[in-house]
Specification:
The chain is of the alpha/beta class. The protein has 11 helices and 11 strands. The chain has 2 domains: about 200 residues, 2-enoyl-CoA Hydratase, Chain A, domain 1, CATH 3.90.226.10; about 50 residues, Lyase 2-enoyl-coa Hydratase, Chain  A, domain 2. It has a 7-stranded mixed β-sheet, with helices on both faces. Strands 5-7-9-10 form a 4-stranded mixed β-sheet.
Length: about 260
């Protein structure tokens, strides 16, 4: 099933939903309408128990997302700029809070808000022509979609400060070296690599993945003892499930498990 939106392409494939930001003529930069289209899709996906993974990418071969639409931004009032920042921040929080894993397929340039979209995802796979960076300081502003908080949590405080203070871009190799992306592929293999990972996720227990994501995301924000308590509670949710029994039975019978998310 394929549904097309002028600004956002939506495709379902093998229990995954692929969201493609579709403004290739302007490097898929974010305007209000694209943010609203993405928000509506993410809101719907919260309740889809048949979907195991979301993949976010950009149309064309040059750009994942070049950040905010600066032509639109130039005509906004201060109040409208504030509304834009709140809109993108809320969208990225909802992406991070999805109960299913989110993979960003970074197919080229990802700057400012584009990098922030990738940071809100659970996993980032980049093409070898990708370039990423939080470049806002070069425009005399700071990252406003969560970049100052998510980047140091992913790559460490010192390196995050370096990249944000200088506004410097990193290429795919450096992004991999510093842990900003999980994997680098040839551009023509990027989407296939993301779908392959999504298919591996789809073979696991849905409730287990949801609880693992919850335990990691909530536990990383607190001390170890509290994090271990969060893990214990999340583990407890998986114990009475049919899927846990199915996993043990399939192992004993030497077959692939059939998980139903219950």
């Amino acid at each position: 099933m394929t549904k097309t939106d002028p600004l956002l392409l939506v495709e379902e494939k093998n229990k995954a939903v692929i969201l493609t930001m579709n403004r290739p003529k302007v490097m898929n930069c974010l305007n209000f309408d694209l943010l609203y289209s993405m928000r509506d899709q993410i809101d719907e996906l919260q309740y889809r128990t048949d979907i195991r993974c979301v993949i976010i990418t950009g149309a064309g071969e040059k750009s994942f997302c070049a950040g905010a639409d600066l032509k639109e931004r130039a005509g906004l009032t201060q109040q409208e700029v504030k509304k834009f920042i709140i809109t993108i921040r809320n969208l990225l929080t909802s992406i991070q809070n999805l109960p299913i894993p989110v993979i960003s397929a970074v197919n080229g340039i990802a700057l400012g808000g584009g990098t922030e979209v990738a940071l809100a995802s659970d996993i980032r796979i980049a093409s070898d022509n990708a370039g990423m960076g939080l470049t806002e300081a070069r425009l005399a502003i700071i990252p406003g979609g969560g970049g100052t908080q998510r980047l140091p949590r992913i790559i460490g405080v010192a390196k995050a400060k370096e990249l944000i203070f200088t506004g410097r871009r990193v290429d795919a190799k450096e992004a991999l070296d510093i842990g900003l992306v999980n994997k680098v592929t040839r551009p023509e293999n990027l989407l296939a690599a993301c779908i392959e990972m999504a298919e591996m996720i789809a073979q696991t227990g849905p409730i287990a993945v949801e609880m693992a994501k919850y335990a990691i995301d909530k536990g990383i924000e607190t001390d170890l003892a509290t994090g271990l308590a969060i893990e214990s509670n999340a583990y407890r949710v998986t114990i009475p499930t049919e899927d846990r029994v199915e996993g043990l039975t399939a192992f004993r019978e030497k077959r692939k498990p059939v998980y139903k998310g219950r």
